[in-house]
Amino acid sequence: MANEEKTAVKTKKITPSSDMFAVIESGSKQYLVKEGNTIQVELVELEEGKELNFEVLLVGNAKEVRVGKPFVAGAKVKSKVKGDVKGEKLIVFKYKPKKNSRTKNGHRQKYTELEIVKIEM
């Protein structure tokens, strides 16, 4: 017994940290986010600086992952509206041969830029 070494079992409580990630849904699209990320979602009618909360479909870190049915109970992602931006211009060109028919239209999608402030479990 004197030669036996005592091994301490280290248990670490999983706490929210910067390596957490979450999957959120906005405008029928899903986004993988981390704290501090900036994402562009479909236009949301909110003023700059306002807070927007999302329910979470999946949340996790390096050690564990929780999947919701459809949402994870008690998990939220808090984000802050940075402003509205426009995407790059797309050209829509329609052409019918031998008919002298040509149409050229442009389109720029509007997005809302969000900064992910906090992921809560």
Quickly list its features.
121 residues; mainly beta; two-stranded antiparallel ribbon; 55% strand; elongated
How would you characterize this protein structure?
The chain contains no helices and 9 strands. It is elongated. Strand 1 and strand 2 (29-34) form a beta hairpin. The strands form 2 sheets. Strands 1, 2, 3, 4, 5, 6 and 9 form a 7-stranded antiparallel β-sheet that branches. It is 0% helix and 55% strand.
What's the topology here?
Blueprint: E1 21-26, E2 29-34, E3 38-42, E4 51-60, E5 65-67, E6 76-86, E7 90-96, E8 101-107, E9 110-120
Antiparallel strand pairs: 1-2, 1-4, 3-9, 4-5, 4-6, 6-9, 7-8
Mean pLDDT: 87
- Percentage of residues assigned to helices: under 10%
Query: What is the terminal separation in angstroms?
Result: 44 Å
- DSSP strand count: 9
Beta-strand percentage range = over 45%
Q: What string gives the helices and strands in order? A: EEEEEEEEE
> Would you tell me the structural class of the helices and strands?
mainly beta
Low-confidence stretches: 6-14
How many separate domains? 1
Q: What would you report as the Rg, rounded to the nearest angstrom?
A: 23 Å
Main sheet record: 7 strands, antiparallel
